[in-house]
From TrEMBL:
It comes from the Eukaryota. It holds the Pfam family AA_permease_2. It is a multi-pass membrane protein. One of its GO terms (molecular function) is transmembrane transporter activity. Gene3D superfamilies: Amino acid/polyamine transporter I (1.20.1740.10). Its main location: membrane. It is found in: Membrane. It comes from Adineta steineri. InterPro entries: AA/rel_permease1, Amino_acid_permease_CS. One of its GO terms (biological process) is amino acid transport. This is Uncharacterized protein. Keywords: Membrane, Transmembrane, Transmembrane helix, Transport.
Length: 502
């Protein structure tokens, strides 16, 4: 038994998945899950409306700093507990035994729903982008909601199929995706700065202009809700933890992959946003574009129809890789939680396919739910942005819970190979304060007056999830869900590390 498998067994689990990822590929996988190309393309119109260039540029830097604090806090815990369960396993093991089932239950369900909402936000955004590209390619055609839903179904199925081809295919797509996520925005940035033909905006406009199309009169309010654009783009770095049972030397590769992906995405994403803002020919025309995506209109104004199709295809592939990674991560999380008997019909989702070495049932469950959560788009087109807000809120609640548990727990924290030393508590406090802020911000309505059409239904989704998980735990799960499984070796190791009596 190698060191990784022995470490996993000490945490209570046997090695079932194959460790094919190393430090570089874990980083690449996490970079794909974050995917600034997907986030920026999908949320560019939102940023142009809620504050405009000033919040898109400077808000990105602000969000990057605080997101790095959250990722550092998570990376430190990941180094101590490198399991596919990730966040819910951390929360359980950072508190005394009597609190383990409850806190791991809430953390797991917020994490799972955040990941499933992530599938919808990425794949549905990709579907709308594909519809936009098709309309440019064939001319007079405007996709209807059912067209987008059909494309969404095809995209979800393609991600399920690629996740069903085994670990070798997954490893090679991870290699390709790593470079694609880096090169696609770089190539577009260089093309815009070097050969773009549009009437470019001035630096003063890009770095100082405040534009408000929300209907709200409070500048501070608009700037705060405008942070969603950057925060959604810098999301999904918990993927490094969920892939840890498929990563060699996971106790250091996982934390480094998490931090490296956040840093890389922050830097390249900022350059990407600035290059797009600089290349706008007419702000209002770009915002109200018939293509449906301001990024598409910016490329059209600079390169014409043919080259726009080429560059948009590069973005489509990057977004597709992001969706693939999101489905993979969701399946690993469902598999891990089922292994701890936390999912309905857990015996189905914990099965590892003997030849493919992946949780095949969990993959297709993720795809099915990812498609079903896109159906509200047929009723209300603003449902997509509500799903984005819900994804961000749920994931950040899940990110914050283990960090909060570490801060308040009387149990001393057993350090892993990566740790923050004396700065740990300070960084954790900053991370928790940031999570509390954005959870409040992203349930607020983005437009005024608030109507049934433009309401932020993320508040309804988040409230429903909180009520359902609470009632389920209170009346059912607390009698049978005991938290993450741990064997005697894990218990002994934890007691030794924390100086607790036997």
């Amino acid at each position: 038994m190698n060191d990784d498998a022995a470490r996993l067994e000490s945490l209570g689990y046997k090695q079932e998945l194959t460790r094919t990822l190393n430090r570089l590929t874990n980083y690449g996988f996490t970079l794909s899950a974050i995917s600034i190309t997907s986030g920026v393309t999908s949320m560019f119109a939102y940023g142009m409306t809620t504050g405009g260039p000033i919040i898109m540029v400077w808000g990105w830097i602000l969000v990057s700093i605080f997101t790095l604090c959250v990722s550092l806090g998570m990376a430190e815990i990941c180094s101590s507990y490198p399991t596919a369960g990730g966040l819910y396993f951390w929360s359980a093991n950072l508190l005394p035994n009597q609190y383990k089932p409850m806190v791991s239950w809430y953390t797991a369900w917020f994490n799972i729903m955040g990941q499933l909402a992530g599938i919808v936000s990425v794949d549905f955004g990709l579907s709308m982008l594909i519809g936009s590209v098709i309309s440019i390619g064939i001319g007079e055609w405007s996709p209807r909601p059912w067209h987008i839903l059909l494309i969404h179904l095809c995209v979800v199925i393609s991600h399920g199929l690629f996740n069903s081809l085994g670990r070798t295919v997954l490893l090679w797509t991870t290699h390709i995706s790593t470079w694609w996520q880096l090169l696609a925005p770089i190539i577009i940035c260089i093309a815009l700065f070097a050969t773009g033909k549009g009437q470019h905006e001035t630096p003063q406009f890009v770095f100082t202009s405040f534009i408000n199309h929300t209907g709200w009169t409070s500048t501070v309010y608009v700037l705060l809700i405008g942070l969603l654009q950057a925060q959604y783009c810098l999301l999904g770095y918990d993927s490094a933890a969920h892939m840890s049972e498929e990563t060699k030397k996971a106790d250091i590769a996982g934390p480094m992959g998490m931090i490296g992906a956040v840093l890389g995405s922050s830097i390249f994403g900022w350059i990407f946003v600035v290059s797009l803002l600089t290349s706008i020919s007419d702000y209002e025309t770009t915002l109200k574009t018939k293509t449906g995506f301001p990024v598409t209109q910016i490329l059209m104004d600079n390169f014409g129809r043919q080259w726009t199709l080429v560059l948009m295809c590069m973005l489509l592939i990057a977004c597709w890789f992001c969706g693939l990674a999101t489905v993979t991560v969701s399946s690993r999380l469902i598999y891990a939680f089922s292994r701890d008997n936390g999912m309905p019909w857990s015996h189905l989702w914990l099965k590892i396919h003997p030849r493919l070495a992946c949780p095949l049932n969990a993959v297709w469950l993720s795809c099915a739910i990812g498609f079903l959560l896109g159906l509200p788009y047929l009723i209300n087109s603003t449902a997509y942005y509500a799903v984005i807000s819900l994804c961000t809120i749920c994931l950040y609640v899940a990110y914050g819970l283990p960090i909060f548990c570490k801060l308040i727990s009387p149990v001393p924290f057993p350090r892993g190979r990566f740790h923050l030393g004396r700065f740990s508590s300070y960084i954790n406090i900053i991370a928790i304060m940031w999570v509390m802020l954005i959870v409040v911000l992203f349930v607020l309505p983005p437009e005024y007056p608030v109507t049934a059409t433009n309401m932020n239904y993320a508040s309804v989704g988040f409230g429903t999830l909180l009520i359902v998980t609470s009632l389920t735990y209170m009346f059912s799960a607390r009698y049978w869900f005991k938290g993450p499984h741990t064997n005697s070796l894990a218990d002994s190791e934890l007691k030794l590390a924390t100086n607790l009596p036997n």
